[in-house]
Amino acid sequence: ALDCGITGEDWTQEFGSDVVRVAKLVYAKKRLVPVKWVLAVPGNSKIRKAQDLKGKRIATELVNVTRRYLRRKKVKADVEFSWGATEAKLATGLVDAIVELTETGATLLAHNLRVVDTVCSSVTQLIANKKSWQDSWKRKRIEALNLLLAGAVEAEQKVGLKMNLRQCDLKKVVAILPAMKKPTVSNLSQRGWLALETVIDEKVARSLIPRLKKAGAEGIIEYSLNKVIH
After folding, report:
1. Which pTM was predicted?
2. How far apart are the first and last CA of the chain?
3. CATH of the domain at 97
4. How many domains would you assign to the chain?
């Protein structure tokens, strides 16, 4: 048996996995957000809510979760397993609805599908074998792995900035920076000049750098990060 692994929360729910959920790692293919399994139908379908699925056929990879969803909605429908190309089954009329994974909804729109409801949300998670988690030696290493993975996810949305500036401009520059903490400042060999380094959200770098330049910063370098450990 494996000691630990990375999988979606959706799949531990699907198989009823008896594991330790060490941590959630919120990331997906395109964005650092949870993904959704949605109930979708053709754009011209008369199905508007879950109750309209009574007696209908639904295709999905997430069979057990979908069946539990229908039980909560008190709807009896036929749920069949589909491995890939699930959207095509709607186009050919093989099924009436699908439950499909989506992050942005772009693929569903491209197939002219309409979302009726969200069946469940899911995030990536680090899981551990219960016996391995009880072993102190293995647990320490799983926790260390979790620390590094969380740091890598955090770094995805951060960048580092380095710059030089005159000492007289320090207050102006620091006032602009939305730093995680106070920036690192050190003296340069040239008297009256400083080097400043900090970490910021990548999304603000584009608008921030021109303001830093205007405030007196020079030699500004933006660089990507591998890990950010809090």
Report:
1. 0.80
2. 32
3. 3.40.190.10
4. 3
